Amino acid sequence: MKSFRLLILSVAFVAVVLVVFFSRTVIVHFFQNFRLAFSGAADSEFTYENYGNLKAQNEVLTQSFSGAENANPTVNADRYRAKEAQVFSDYPFNNYAAITIDIGSDDGIKVGMPVLSAPGVLLGKIKDVKRTESEVETIFDPAWRSAVAFGTNRAKALLTGGPAPYLDLIPKDASSTAGDAVMNLASNFPMNSLIGRILDWEAGENGVWAKAKVEPPISFEDLRKVLVIINFP
Question: What pLDDT sits at residue 72?
Answer without folding.
Answer: 46
